[in-house]
Structures are given as structure tokens and as C-alpha cells.
Amino acid sequence: MPNIVAFGASSSKNSINRKLAHFAASQISDADIHLLDLNDFEMPIYSTDREKEGIPNKAHEFKAALQQSDGIIISFAEHNGAYTTAFKNIFDWISRLEKPIWCGRPMFLLATSTGARGAKTVLELAHLRLSRDNPSIPAFSLPSYNENFTEDKGITNETLLQEFKIALAEFVAQL
Ligand SMILES: Cc1cc2nc3c(=O)[nH]c(=O)nc-3n(C[C@H](O)[C@H](O)[C@H](O)COP(=O)(O)O)c2cc1C
Asked: How buried is residue 126: exposed, middle or buried, by Cβ count under 10 Å (0-12/13-18/19+)?
């Protein structure tokens, strides 16, 4: 039974990306899903000066969750064309722990927003960066979340669902 760590790269209480990440994990048969909430890993804003005072325990806890996983699903919220501060801060802190940052686990990158671009800008940014450690990461962006997703059914648009399933299968094949 693969242990899948999934999270929305957002600190919103009702994060649509958290819902998409959870949906993706729920589509993997017999997966043990570990849904993280970035609010549980809030730390001081990273700086090299703060790092000299020590790396917060929460960074170690986040890394431990990655280490215990067999695969990682992240759905990115886009803030001003980039990562949310909540995600970037965790990324910066864990990048100061042992390499590889994402523990060499298979990854599946997603993104959604209520707009027609579906947070593609941040997805491309994340894919470019994370592909340095893993050149075969599948990615999927869900545009116009309110029109294409419901909490009980998941992705409702058939074309997008097929695209999602192809990307998911690539991820599952790496587990
Ligand atoms: C400060 C801020 C900046 C935003 N910038 C963008 C953006 O650049 N592109 C975009 O598609 N949506 C943007 N949005 C809208 C978010 O995509 C939307 O709030 C979405 O719900 C965030 O995902 P979440 O619910 O998982 O947090 C922004 C929202 C906020 C609050």
C-alpha cells in the first residue's frame, strides 16, 4: 500500500488546491493518504540570519513526512504569478536540510485557480525547479475550478478528466 503525501501549496482554510490534491490521491487504488495542512508547518520567514539560530523543528517534521512517503502530490495555488508565501517558506527551510530536498520521491504536480489559466504560471515555475532533481514529473493544471470540479465528483469535465488520468497514470507507474 503506497503512502502518498498530498497537500495544497496554500494556507487557505478552504483551499481548492488542497481539495484537488486530495482528489488526486484518492484516485490511486489502495493508497494510504497522508494529507498535510501547511498551517501545521508555519515557521518564521526564512533568512540566512535566522538559520544561524537553528532550523525550526517543523521543517524537520515536514521533511520526515516526505521521507516516510512513497510519493508526493502537490497542488499549487498561484499568488501573483508565483508560489504562495506559505509554501515558499517551507520550501526554503527544507532546502537547508539534507538533499535531495524532496527525498527523491516520485512527484505529481497539480495547480488550479478559479481563472481560465488554472494557475499555470506557478505550475510551470514549480515544474521547472523540481524537474532538476527528477526529470519525469507529470503535471496537470485544472482551469476554472468552479466550473470543472465538485467536491463529491471531483473533476467533472470529461476532457480534463482524461488529461488528468494520463498524468496520474505516469505518477502511479513511478511508485
Ligand atoms: C494575494 C493573491 C494573489 C493571487 N494571484 C493570483 C495569480 O497570480 N493567478 C491566479 O490564477 N490566481 C491568483 N489569485 C487567486 C487564487 O488563485 C485563488 O485565491 C485560489 O483560490 C487560491 O488557491 P487556494 O484556494 O488553494 O488557496 C490570487 C489570490 C490572492 C489572495
From this structure: buried
